[in-house]
Amino acid sequence: MSRTPLDTVEHAAATPDVELPWAELGLKKDEYERVVEILGRRPTGAELAMYSVMWSEHCSYKSSKVHLRQFGEKAPESDAMLVGIGENAGVVDVGQGYAVTFKVESHNHPSYVEPYQGAATGVGGIVRDIIAMGARPVAVVDPLRFGAADHPDTKRVLPGVVAGIGGYGNCLGLPNIGGEVVFDACYQGNPLVNAGAIGVMRHEDIHLAKASGAGNKVILYGARTGGDGIGGASILASETFDDAKPSKRPAVQVGDPFQEKLLIECTLEAFREKLVVGIQDLGAAGLSCATSELASNGSGGMRVTLDDVPLRDSTLSPEEILMSESQERMCAVVEPEKVDRFLEICDKWDVIATVIGEVTDGDRLEIYWHGGKIVDVDPRTVAHEGPVYERPYARPSWQDELQADDANKLPRPETSEELKDQVLKLVGSPNQASKSWITSQYDHFVQGNTVLAQPEDSGMIRIDEETDLGVAIATDGNGRYAKLDPYHGAQLALAEAYRNVATTGARPLAVSDCLNFGSPEDPAVMWQFAEAVRGLADACQQLGTPVTGGNVSLYNQTGEAAIHPTPVVAVLGVIDDVARRTPVAFQEEGQLLYLLGDTREEFGGSAWSQVVHDHLGGLPPQVDLERERLLAEILISASRDGMIDSAHDLSDGGLIQAVVESALLGGKGARLIVPDGLDAFTFLFSESAGRAVVAVPRSEEVRFNDMCGARGLPVTRIGVVDGDTVDVQGEFALPLSELRETHEGTIPALLK
Amino acid sequence: MARVVVDVMLKPEILDPQGQAVQRALPRLGFDGISDVRQGKRFELEVDGPVDEAALARIHDLAESFLANTVIEDFTIRVEEVAEAVK
Amino acid sequence: MTARIGVVTFPGSLDDRDTQRAIRVAGAEPVALWHKDKDLKQVDAVVLCGGFSYGDYLRAGAIARFSPVMEPLLEQAKAGLPVLGICNGFQILTEAHLLPGTMLRNNHLHFICRDQKLRVENAETAWTTDYAAGQEIHIPLKNNDGQYVADERTLDELEAEGRVAFRYVDFNPNGSQRDIAGVSNEAGNVVGLMPHPEHAVEPLIGTGRTDGLPFFTSILKKLVNA
Fold first, then answer.
1. Of A76, A261, A289, A429, which residue is the least packed, with the fewest Cβ within 10 Å?
2. Which of A744, A660, A182, A198 has the alpha carbon at shortest distance from A440?
3. Which residue has the higher pLDDT, A254 or C50?
4. InterPro entries under this entry (chain B) (predicted)?
5. Is A488 designated active site?
6. Domain that residue B53 falls in
């Protein structure tokens, strides 16, 4: 068998005219030329593999970077930020010496191809990001978006995604405490599977992805490396450098949650013994990313011997090893005298660990294979100095027409009977229906610290058993609002998540986001993206909640049709005493119901317009961030001082949706009175932002009203917790049993 | 009546965590000399009527579209005579 | 004095720290045990906690059952050491034949997590004396392979000897035969059940009920008064 010589650095320098398949690897011509310019010669195959994968949209953020800068430039003053954008995940100070890290990432495309494994490995990836910061993961959340609920392919994708999230997360022992499930035809060929995770650590335990200290060892540990996710590198191996045909490469990666659980325990034990100088998880771009990131963030260079990487498939070429995305692997930098102990801990947990290199006092990343040097690069040029694009963007021509198609002009119910029918239709619609068929497949109880889990407004976890300190997280997004107006749509997503955290009694501290959009090469999509980022950055600045990090997912489209612009926003909050948390469920009959905030005729993008008229047009609800901040302050104070026993934020579906949910969860009905100045329809269905419904014990009525009055928050008494119907006086009364059947029957019926 | 057996295995290049966990437990139980374990599924289909080419073609379709997830799994089909009355 | 109750950690155990907390809340002293050690550290009782030991690969509990720690455990359990198996722990106990029957995949084929109503059928085992016979309690349930099955003769025997310790009430979440949620051995020192009492010991956490605490106070009283 004749083999072409190994493409070493030397060989590359001597053979400048060899053509490399840069286009097949996704590089543009000018990008390839830049690589040649940086190196002063043609790259080796291994170098090309690294540059191509690290300069991809997914890893380099080349289209989004210029916009994302605003999150830093407009970042509000906050004492809470300990680690900001750019690390594996941001870290926030939550008091008492605790730090919390959280992040949301997308795993959209893999989840469409193979729903179970795609979703499972999405959970695995985000959890490794959290461990890599030095934190113990304590909870996960999953914002999900699927195509039309009654489309046959939704029956393939949704159960697989849900089983995959459950199968992986449950096996890791992480409670799943929040998220969303949304159906819309725009996600038919491109579901959104976003996965979020939270981790907790002491301040002194924060770890960063950097390789410092010449002589320190680089240890790869976890699963063996296989040919996962390396379509591109196989081209290199097969077409250019090796005439021996490579074995077939998997199109889909299979997750092993058991291996990941061992990885968590073994990493945390190594942290506890202070054995780790720097750490990085292996996700997209695998070793290419881990070695270049670690080296470029550290003070020196790095030398790696690729022959030492434990393989699952011995036929892998060096290019493939560098690009492999095999799951459940991590890379740690450890001082030489601590290596033995580190390996011992790995052995204790049956985790394979191998020294594959060391930190050098130079500034190059050098990688060897069979004795030859196949990579010699400045790691910064790989990891951080990739291309940056100012993609053209333009407000789409159809935007005006869409906004002019005013939802407020749609026909409204004319009789009480019609109003009642529309209420039932709303609470039984797939988007508004109970998601317990889905969430009951997730473990909410494991770790024994879950205070609140879905369908509560935010998930809440106790982080200190002695002091009862807790954190809350909510994720929200509304692609319909964002389609109508991306700037305000993104702000509404933030406002809702912020409000949801405050509704449970926690103080919002910081933001992470997962920005799901179509192709950046379409100027209309790029405009949506730019507007959404600008809106989110402005709103974060005004609310005083910095963005700690996030994820951008582009090219979410089927053919020419992009998904709705879907910025999903996660807000993290802190609560000093979880005993003060406020649940959604009505607690006691006789308690008074108050509506906080202003209700306007706002139906653009509303659930009502979708469910009753299958309509999307007009403008989304107005955004008033000062009002959101005031509302949050009132909700937090009322919760702390025991003035309210239940609270629910108003968002899609409006007031009636919120009241029905509180009633069904508490098993107690409500009598509602339409307030003066509002018609019943607007009262029930409007989606004006900055509102919540609270249940106030009679003993607290005066104190609560005084507080709202003194601080200038509009408050309207709208009824009382009572009986076993939801009774809108003068209009209709619906028995809880009928509401329950409608609300809880929809999803199982669709998926059975 | 005949029995058709469909064996579904993960493709060789796909990670098999289950097989791996079993393989790792073997030395502890005193079973040495087994270098790899892969776990799969076996389906036994009792077919009414003759197992002719047409029947096998239908079973092939069934295996491809339903029994196996061909994104990650391969399958094989073989006919097994059902020995009645043999104990 | 208080009792020392061991909690075994297998690779893939998830509720080991929660179980240690429940033991602490009840007033006993938790002792961490490791699957690779043939040593029970002279504990007075052992809990095999929930999780996915070895990822539940092959069969739930099948690989863990051959761990070194199981050797002294089997020996001492047969001699009367109180052992409680929760969820995966129950599966390990059936794989080890300390308890009869086995668990199949839930009949609806989904993982299920819910606040489950149970009836205490036997309040005389080592782990249930702080309940009243017939008492109905709510305990979180969360599993993939929770369908209890055994042959008819075994089931009849269990019923006749009062060894069905817990039964699902109102809703059978996994298709278990005769609604069985938990069983005990003949002597009553070994008990296994699918629901998770360790997740129902604090008023604020989980479902907000403390119906699981009596498991741990029962054993504590028994050991302290012994």
1. A76
2. A744
3. C50
4. PurS, PurS-like_sf
5. no
6. 2-14+40-81
Alpha-carbon torsion (A728, A733, A735, A738), positive or negative: negative
Cβ atoms of residues A751 and A159 within 8 Å: yes
Correct CATH for A9-63+207-383 of 3.40.50.410, 1.20.1270.50, 3.40.1180.10, 3.90.650.10: 3.90.650.10
pLDDT in tens, chain C (226 residues): 689 999 999 999 999 999 999 999 999 999 999 999 999 999 999 999 999 999 988 889 999 999 999 999 999 999 999 999 999 999 999 999 999 999 999 999 899 999 999 999 999 999 999 999 999 999 999 999 999 999 999 999 999 999 999 999 999 999 999 999 999 999 999 999 999 999 999 998 888 899 999 999 999 999 998 7
Give the ipTM: 0.95
Please name the residue that has the structure tokens 């995959």: A164
A105 is an annotated ligand-binding site residue: yes
Handedness of CA C90, C95, C101, C104 (dihedral sign): positive
Q: Which amino acid is at C170?
A: D
A228 with B24: Cβ contact below 8 A: no
A716 interfaces chain C, CB cutoff of 8 Å:
no
Q: Which residue numbers of C are catalytic? A: 87, 196, 198
Task: Show residues of chain A in contact with C17, CB under 8 Å.
Answer: 447-448
Phi/psi for C167 (5° steps) reads -130, 145
Structure tokens at B74: 């391969």
Domain ranges for chain A, please list them: 9-63+207-383
Domain count along chain B: 1
Examine residue B59 and state whether it is found in any structural domain, yes or no. Answer: yes
- Known catalytic residue: A444? no
- Here the tokens at position A292 are 């270049």
Vertex A317 angle, CA A59 and A119, to 5°:
45
Subunits with at least 3 CB pairs below 8 A relative to chain A? B, C
Q: Does C63 touch chain B (CB under 8 A)?
A: yes
Domain assignment present for residue B33? The answer is: no
Show Cβ contacts of residue A422 under 8 Å, excluding neighbours closer than 6 positions: A413, A608, A611, A612, A685
Superfamily for domain range C4-225 = Class I glutamine amidotransferase (GATase) domain (3.40.50.880)
Q: Give the integer Cα–Cα distance in Å for C12 and C50.
A: 9
Helices (H), A458-485: 479-484
Give the gap in angstroms from C-alpha A431 to the nearest C-alpha of chain C. Answer: 22
Could you tell me if residue B86 is inside a domain? Answer: no
Distance of CA B6 to the CA centre of its chain: 5
Kindly state whether A261 is in contact with chain C, defined as any CB-CB distance less than 8 angstroms.
yes
Indicate the domain borders of chain C: 4-225
Q: Tell me, yes or no, if B41 comes closer than 8 A to chain C by beta carbon.
A: no
Q: C55 touching B, CB under 8 A?
A: yes
Tokens 């722990």 appear where? C89
What burial letters (b/e) apply to A177-197, b meaning 16+ CB within 10 Å?
Answer: bbbbbbbbebbbbbbbbbbbb
User: A129 a known binding residue?
Assistant: yes
Strand ranges, E, within chain C: 4-9, 29-34, 45-48, 83-86, 102-104, 112-120, 136-143, 147-149, 164-168, 180-184, 190-193
A281 is in an annotated binding site: yes
Q: Is A516 annotated as a binding residue?
A: no
Buried (b) or exposed (e) across C38-66, using 16+ Cβ within 10 A? eebeebbbbbbbbbbbbbbbbbbbbbbbb
Q: Closest Cα of chain A to C156: distance in Å?
A: 32
Q: Is residue A446 within 8 Å of C18, Cβ to Cβ?
A: yes
Closest of A168, A197, A191, A181 to residue A256, by C-alpha: A168
Q: Which residues of A429-455 are buried (b: 16+ CB within 10 A; e: fewer)?
A: bbbbbbbbbbbbbbbbbbbbbbbbbbb
Burial of A723 (0-12, 13-18, 19+ CB in 10 A): middle
Check residue A254 and report its DSSP letter.
P
